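Consider the tokenized backbone below.
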């Protein structure tokens, strides 16, 4: 489905990625990029650092997060010679395009955007004024995101469910501009949700998330990973008691990482009362370490040699910028009748 298409992946640098981020977002994004490239398409992959400053004001912390996210994608197999891998803040045209897009962004779209609405809801719950602590960066961020998408003539934007609305806003803004000038100035994007990707549960059964403190770490040593896996919630039923694997959290997490044969084996063992919780936790631990062992090494290498990553990002920006420049020129020519 990606033949000859431009696929764009954007990621906010939000903190040290855990196993849930890796299996649920990072790995599938790299795979989709590869699929596009393999079938004659193009893959842009950028780090949305301008989006990040709305929430993160400490430059050192922001820089650390950017490094971590860049290195995890490289370690996970993103090939910067094939994918165009860059930082949003290296493409200044983004802001000129955004200013033009603002003139076609109904304020009501921003009022309804999820990220803003969630912030308002949180304020209401806390008994604070609606817009308490909300900056214009957060409020207008769907327009900047629309620019991220249209600047590179993206066809397909793979996203999680929470970002669908933002891609639709991008499509609406681009459509309004095209309609006004009666010309295809901007390419209309579509979102893509990868249904094959499951939400990875954390060690307490809720979605794995740093804010719940229920993560299995990606880049810590084997001991910390083991500690997290051995604290996955279980009950006190004896091994011999036949169990329904679908009710067992370790099995649920295993399903997101193991091969079909391995999953079958664990399922059978539980159903037949032949595998206890200690066994299945060790099976999960082996699968996790097998999956991330090589990645962890590469990740540590890139973190320690970030100058090499800087060069890759600079090269990506050089390759991304001409598309943004061309988009800006098309817009300015039309808007100002140049
Ligand atoms: N808003 C996205 C997120 O929070 C990140 C993002 C910014 C993005 N610009 C984008 C994603 C453009 C896809 C396309 O995850």
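A designed sequence for it:
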């Amino acid at each position: 489905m990606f033949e000859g298409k431009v696929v764009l992946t954007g990621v906010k640098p939000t903190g040290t990625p855990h196993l849930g981020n890796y299996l649920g977002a990072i790995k599938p994004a790299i795979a989709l990029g590869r699929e596009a490239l393999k079938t004659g398409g193009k893959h842009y992959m950028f780090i949305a650092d301008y989006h990040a400053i709305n929430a993160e004001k400490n430059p050192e912390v922001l820089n650390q997060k950017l490094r971590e996210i860049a290195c995890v994608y490289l370690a996970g197999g993103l090939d910067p010679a094939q994918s165009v891998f860059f930082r949003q803040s290296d493409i200044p045209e983004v802001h000129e395009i955004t200013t033009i897009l603002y003139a076609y962004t109904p304020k009501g779209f921003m009022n309804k955007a999820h990220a803003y609405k969630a912030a308002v809801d949180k304020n209401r719950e806390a008994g604070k004024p609606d817009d308490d602590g909300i900056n214009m960066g957060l409020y207008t961020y769907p327009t900047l995101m629309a620019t991220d998408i249209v600047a590179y003539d993206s066809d397909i934007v793979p996203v999680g469910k929470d970002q669908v609305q933002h891609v639709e806003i991008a499509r609406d803004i681009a459509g309004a501009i095209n309609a006004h000038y009666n010309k295809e100035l901007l390419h209309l994007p579509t979102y893509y949700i990868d249904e094959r990707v499951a939400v990875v549960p954390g060690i307490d059964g809720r979605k794995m998330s740093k804010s719940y403190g229920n993560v299995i770490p990606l880049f810590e040593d084997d001991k910390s990973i083991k500690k997290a896996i051995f604290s996955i919630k279980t009950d006190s039923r004896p091994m011999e008691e036949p169990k329904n694997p679908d009710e067992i959290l370790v099995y649920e997490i295993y399903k997101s990482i193991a091969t079909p044969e391995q999953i079958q084996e664990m399922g059978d063992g539980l159903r037949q009362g032949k595998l206890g919780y200690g066994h299945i936790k060790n099976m999960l631990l082996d699968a996790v370490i097998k999956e991330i062992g090589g990645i962890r090494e590469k990740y540590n290498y890139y973190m320690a040699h970030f100058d090499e990553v800087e060069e890759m990002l600079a090269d990506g920006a050089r390759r991304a910028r001409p598309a943004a420049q061309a988009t800006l020129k098309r817009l300015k020519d039309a808007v100002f009748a140049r």
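The pocket of tryptophan is lined by residues 8, 10, 12, 48, 51, 145, 148-149, 157, 159, 163, 166 (CB under 6 Å).
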